[in-house]
Amino acid sequence: MFLVTPDPIHGLVAAPRSPEDLTPGTEETLTAQGFTWNSDIEAYTRPTDHSFEAVDRTAGALRELGHYVFSAHTPLSRD
Predict the structure, then answer these.
(1) What phi and psi values does residue 21 have, to the nearest 5 degrees?
(2) 76 close to 8: Cβ distance less than 8 angstroms
(3) Which of 31, 34, 78, 79 is buried deepest, with most CB atoms within 10 A?
């Protein structure tokens, strides 16, 4: 399971629920889209292009790989 959402600090975030979600195919797909692993927040991040379309494109790619995905087009509150 992944959360895909824009973040004011990190750009577009694709956060796995657990390490088991990080299959080789998933990591390859995210890396090909310009994401890098951010160990501080334990998620893939991409500082550029966090538009509605980018959220949908990333969520769609993860769903095609068989993941359940929650996505949001606006940054989520950290409170």
Answers:
(1) -75, -15
(2) no
(3) 34
Please state, in angstroms and rounded to a whole number, the distance separating the CA atoms of residues 3 and 19.
Answer: 13
Q: Closest Cα to residue 38, out of 22, 25, 24, 23?
A: 22
Distances (CA, A) of 75 to 24, 33, 69: 28, 20, 16
Positive/negative CA dihedral, 79, 57, 44, 64: positive
38 phi and psi, to 5 degrees?
-115, 105
Q: Residue 63 in contact with residue 69, Cβ under 8 Å?
A: yes
The whole-number pLDDT of residue 78 equals: 58
How many alpha carbons fall within 13 Å on the CB side of residue 78? 6
pTM for this prediction: 0.88
Instruction: Give the helix ranges, DSSP H, for 4-67.
Output: 24-32, 52-64
